[in-house]
Design brief:
Blueprint lengths: L7 H27 L13 E7 L6 E8 L22 E6 L10 H6 L5 E5 L5 E2 L12 E5 L5 E2 L12 E3 L7 E2 L12 E3 L7 E2 L12 E3 L21 E3 L7 E2 L12 E3 L7 E2 L12 E3 L21 E3 L10 H4 L12 E3 L13 H8 L3 H8 L2 E3 L16 H10 L2 H5 L17 E3 L27 H12 L6 H11 L3
Parallel strand pairs: 2-3, 3-4, 4-6, 5-7, 6-8, 8-10, 9-11, 10-12, 12-13, 13-15, 14-16, 15-17, 17-18, 18-19
Antiparallel strand pairs: 1-2, 20-21
Helix pairs in contact: 4-5
């Protein structure tokens, strides 16, 4: 039989494929001859050792974790070019295990890795991130620089990272956030700055982060905020400012955060909230102010946040919380996923808390009902209520509460709520809901001005005030003028 002839086109294709394989073999051999495979470092004295998942073969590693040992490594070390042996790495982490072992960002390595998506450095002694350190790393999507002793972030430090969505800078020593530090990050959605030494946020520090959704600034030294602090964050949904040193929040502080849904201000030193502090937060659902120093709240504080359905005011110094405080958001607290926490304040058992009886019966939220059922207030010295009204809740009632719980209520976690240790009640403390509404005393109203910020009244407001004066046929004119002036308080 005659052998079949191979078509010329197929023959050319086979030759081309064989040539391609030959070129790849030559390239690998060239890399092996000129550089060290970072996934296969046999020298025990090497300052860096890397562990590669998948395959350690040349250009086949996808995920690599490198450990820096032996007294550190400098910018000119011949090891850095060896990363060309694994140019397809997508995930790279540096963990420094020697004091002062890495004092700079190894930018040369990053330039070799054109497919890099996730990059991290931990435990280094990097003190400053210079301008344009990461410029043109167009493939990087997540960057983590935690526990690196960073003190300074220069302007344009993260310039031109077009696909970066998450930047984590937790547990450093950053002192301030300068204007334009975060310039050139159009895709950034999450910025984490927890546990630094930040005391100042310059105007415009975040103004280019138009797509940022989550900002964590907890555990810093921030004491002052104004609306310029958050300029540009129109799409932010969650802001964490817990454990700072904030004492006063003035009107319109958060006016730029139109889409904010969650605001956490726990563990600060807040003792004054201007009446219009939260104006502009029309989308706010959750507000947490526990462990502060609030003594009183302006009646109209929640007027600008009428969508609010979750409020935490535990462990302040509040003496009164009336239906006027609650009215703008009262109906929201009936919803199934809502909550209101008021424990750990200094409330008297009086008629200003009578709304709790009503809300207890109207609420669909097990959290609201349970919180109100456990709410404790103090009896004034001249109260002579019959002790029979303060019997402990019966076990049958508790069983009914448990039976009302849905499976979702058990599974749903509230990250803000921390179960407080049980306190021994003093002799004058009672569970409010065990006191009949008709027996709650009504002390005289106490007028007070807590907000020193003033604004000019609107045209309609001015008209209302004029009508008020003209219609006051009886009473002291000075009292009317005082009422008008108090109405201008913002």
């Amino acid at each position: 039989m005659r052998a079949q002839k191979i078509p010329a086109a197929l023959l050319l294709l086979l030759v081309a494929i064989d040539s391609l394989h030959a070129n790849r073999r030559k390239q690998k051999e060239k890399i092996i001859q000129t550089t060290t495979n970072i996934c296969d470092i046999s020298d025990r004295d090497s300052k860096v050792h890397c562990y590669c998942e998948n395959s350690p073969e040349i250009n086949e590693a996808i995920k690599t974790e490198c450990w820096v040992f032996n007294g550190g490594i400098d910018k000119t070390d011949p090891l850095w070019p060896s990363f060309t042996s694994q140019s397809n790495i997508e995930i790279l982490a540096f963990n420094v295990r020697a004091d002062g072992g890495l004092s700079f960002v190894p930018t040369k390595v990053l330039r070799y890795l054109r497919k890099l998506k996730i990059f991290s450095i931990k435990y280094s002694s990097i003190l400053k991130i210079e301008s344009e350190t990461f410029v043109n790393l167009t493939s990087v999507q997540e960057m983590t620089l935690t526990k690196n002793q960073i003190v300074v972030l220069n302007k344009y430090a993260f310039y031109n990272l077009p696909n970066l969505t998450t930047l984590t800078l937790d547990e450093n020593r950053i002192k301030k956030l300068e204007t334009d530090t975060f310039y050139g990050l159009p895709a950034l959605q999450k910025l984490f700055l927890t546990s630094n030494n930040i005391s100042k946020i310059e105007e415009g520090a975040f103004r280019h982060l138009v797509n940022l959704l989550e900002l964590e600034l907890d555990r810093n030294n921030i004491s002052e905020l104004n609306k310029e602090s958050f300029n540009g964050l129109a799409n932010l949904k969650r802001l964490d400012l817990r454990r700072n040193k904030i004492a006063i929040l003035n009107s319109f502080t958060f006016i730029e955060l139109w889409n904010l849904q969650e605001l956490l201000l726990d563990y600060n030193e807040i003792y004054i909230l201007a009446q219009r502090t939260f104006d502009g937060l029309s989308q706010l659902k959750k507000l947490s102010l526990s462990h502060n120093k609030l003594v009183t709240l302006a009646d109209g504080l929640f007027e600008g946040v009428r969508g609010l359905s979750a409020v935490d005011l535990r462990h302040n110094k509040l003496k009164r919380f009336t239906i006027d405080n609650l009215r703008p958001i009262y109906d929201n607290l009936k919803l199934q996923k809502s909550y209101i926490y008021l424990e750990g304040n200094d409330f008297d058992c009086d008629c200003h808390l009578a709304w709790m009886h009503k809300l207890r019966h109207e609420a669909n939220s097990i959290k609201v009902r349970t919180s109100l059922e456990n709410f404790v207030c103090k009896l004034s010295k001249d109260s002579n209520f019959h002790q029979g009204y303060f019997e402990p809740a019966k076990n049958a009632e508790k069983e009914n509460i448990i039976n009302e719980l849905d499976e979702d209520d058990f599974n749903e976690e509230d990250e803000t709520y921390i179960e407080e240790p049980k306190k021994v009640r003093s002799d004058n403390e009672r569970t409010l809901l065990q006191i009949p509404v008709e027996l709650l005393p009504c002390p005289a109203e106490v007028k007070s001005v807590t907000d020193k910020t003033y604004t000019y009244p609107s045209q309609n407001e001015a008209k209302d005030y004029r009508n008020l004066i003209q219609s006051s046929a009886v009473g002291n004119v000075g009292d009317v003028i005082l009422i008008v002036l108090l109405s201008f308080v913002v």
